[in-house]
Amino acid sequence: MKNIPNILSGLRILMVGAFVYLFISKEYAWSLIVFATAFFTDVLDGYLARKFHWITDLGKLLDPVADKLLVLSALVCILIAKSAETFYLVIFILVLVKESLMLAGGMMMLKNKTVAYSDWYGKTATGLFALGIVLTLLDIALTKVNLSVWAVSFLAIAVALSYYAMMHYAMTQMFAKPKGETESITASEEPDTSQNNE
Question: Which pLDDT score is estimated for 52?
């Protein structure tokens, strides 16, 4: 039972391939359904992991990897479909730079045998990305409905929050001193009162 969230993350990675195939085939409605289902598995595995304490080191790695693959693949597909709109290129470049920095930071933490984990800032940014992507997919699928303004707004907010999440992640996980080390430094700074003054 403890591995159910990990199984859901694995299924989400498989759905990335299905989403890309359907989008390239111009089955936009089905690609939207697959994307929405994949995002639902993200919400579900996070809920199960927290509620039942089914949190594993594998899950801490697998869940964000699945999220990033889903978002990046969707942004690439959208960029191809909306190649004439510069905004989507800017969004993709910003996300790619941010994910490259996160990957470098994650590799540094792995060298120190530390497993990073996604926090609420990152999860909220992922949710906003998903909402912006869904609106963009609807805008592509429903030619008579213009949702581009809303889609662009949510994607822009998601990018800004993702960069904030990256800085928060760096301060709280990457560059933060271990608790034991902090306690030892504090203890060493306390004055020695074991001997009375002569």
Answer: 87
